[in-house]
Amino acid sequence: NREWGEARGQEFDLKHVLKPHKTGGGAQGGGGPTVNDMTVEDTVQWLKQLQIDDSAVEVAAKEKLTCKDLSLLSLEELQEDVGLSKLQAKKVVNRLKEMQEEEGTEGEKEGA
């Protein structure tokens, strides 16, 4: 639970286990890499956190796909070219969209 994490100096919210929890701070507002900045390694770890099938994660690694690359693919391409199931493809698209919306919100706050 949240109190357990705070007691150990970590901040997280179990409702958002699959999404990075932004804690603020740092030169760039701290929240970790953005969709556009995520490396292949970041993307592979992110897919694993989403519990995507190992075979699809291996394709992403082999093809050196980043989250930015994945965000440009259609549901059909994610299924046919990366090997995601229809539900997994929707999960990836929805999480990427959420991350991009959060980034937009963070950008607006920083620009204000």
Describe the protein:
With about 110 residues, the chain is mostly helical. The chain has 6 helices and no strands. The longest helix has 26 residues, at about 85-110. The radius of gyration is 15 Å and the shape is globular. It starts with a helix and ends with a helix.
Low-confidence stretches: 1-30
The gyration radius over C-alpha positions equals 15 Å
The count of strands amounts to 0
Output the helix-strand order: HHHHHH
Q: Specify the number of helices.
A: 6
Helix content: 55-70%
Average pLDDT metric: 78
Shape: globular
What class do helices, strands and sheet pairing give? mainly alpha
Main sheet specs: none
The termini sit apart by 33 Å
Percent of residues in beta strands = under 5%
Key features?
disordered N terminus; mainly alpha; single chain; 6 helices; 112 residues; 0% strand
Provide a compact summary of the structure.
With 112 residues, the chain is mostly helical.
Write the layout of secondary structure elements.
Blueprint: H1 2-7, H2 40-49, H3 54-62, H4 67-71, H5 75-82, H6 86-111
Helix pairs in contact: 2-3, 5-6
